[in-house]
Design a protein that fits this description.
Layout (H helix, E strand, L loop, with lengths): L11 E5 L4 H11 L7 E5 L20 E7 H4 L11 E7 L12 E2 L5 E6 L10 E2 L5 E6 L15 H15 L6 E6 L6 H9 L9 E7 L4 H14 L10 E6 L5 E8 L1 H10 L10 H8 L2
Parallel strand pairs: 1-2, 2-3, 3-4, 4-6, 5-7, 6-8, 8-9, 9-10
Antiparallel strand pairs: 10-12, 11-12
Length: 291
């Protein structure tokens, strides 16, 4: 095993492990001895049994963390990431679904959060407290139609977005960038209208972009309805909201909706070094700027 305890110059490490779960645990315990590690990108095996929430690992001193793993194994790590400035969680769907909320998780250093998961992973939002969060990236993985999902997954979409709206409204007063990707069609006309026309927090963002499954062209027609509703109230967002359609290689349709405050956006990017640690799709924002 590499003597990580002597690697005093090692500050950034990527682990992409394809070994038995016992060997994976040994590697993680060895890495835990690295004295000055600050950035960790860790990809588990799909069938990992590493009890990641129980092992002694210095999560609390890492400033940038990226984890690809199941909700079951990754979730216990999150409360220990108290120094994390960026946190990327790419979670796989694991049964049984965890419906009961845990105690609040205070992450006061967190500036950028990326959550890529199936529907159940968004339940983590109801536990997070990160008042200094500036960038939020939410991506819902398309469901595998070959799986047989439990019955309670059907009502999970409503629960998912209710948790998002509560988190967006009450928990992240300093948010400036929001990017959401939902190509599987969980977002609805009612939810889009609620987000844009009835959520006062949206106008405080410098950049907002959504990529949504657009079957039947509902997104474009909903945006037009929203423009009509905002026009009667003189809302500041009315002239900012842009939308465009994109055909997929399989004949489907995606819609991009959002806006960018160009001057503020560029200044924001210039002043935030941590942005390079996030997988923010900058092309989508650039495409909005050029409409």
């Amino acid at each position: 095993m590499v003597p990580f305890k002597d690697a005093i110059c090692l500050t950034k490490l990527g682990l992409y492990i394809s070994v038995t779960w016992k060997a994976e645990l040994d590697v993680l315990l060895a890495v835990a001895q690295t004295p000055n590690l600050q950035r960790l990108n860790w990809m588990f095996l799909d069938d990992s049994y590493v009890p990641s929430g129980e092992i002694l690992f210095p999560w609390n001193r890492l400033t940038h963390i990226s984890i690809t793993e199941s909700t079951y194994n990754a979730a216990p790590i999150v409360p220990h990431c108290t120094s994390a400035v960026t946190l990327n969680l790419h979670m796989e769907l694991v049964f049984p679904l965890h419906r009961q909320p845990e105690v609040p998780i205070p992450l006061y250093a967190l500036k950028g959060l990326e959550l890529l998961c199936h529907r159940d992973g968004f339940r983590l939002l109801r536990e997070l407290e990160c008042p200094n969060l500036e960038v939020l990236i939410l991506k819902i993985n398309e469901e595998d139609r070959g799986w047989s999902y439990p019955e309670d997954l059907d009502d999970c979409a409503d629960d998912l977005w209710e948790r998002f709206f509560a988190f967006f409204k009450d928990s992240i007063p300093n948010l400036r960038v929001l990017q959401i990707e939902d190509v599987d069609g969980l977002f609805t006309p009612e939810l889009l209208t609620r987000l844009v026309a009835k959520t006062l927090r949206l106008e405080k963002l410098w950049a907002w972009e959504m990529t949504i499954g657009n079957e039947g062209g509902w997104v474009v027609s909903t945006v037009e309805d929203i423009r009509g509703e905002l026009g009667t109230s003189g809302d500041i967002l009315l002239d900012r909201i842009l939308d465009r359609e994109e055909m997929t290689m399989y004949g489907g349709s995606l819609a991009h909706v959002g806006y960018v405050w160009e001057i503020e956006w560029k200044e924001f990017l210039k002043e935030r070094d941590y942005m390079k640690e996030l997988h923010l799709d900058m092309n989508k924002f650039q495409n909005l700027l050029h409409l």
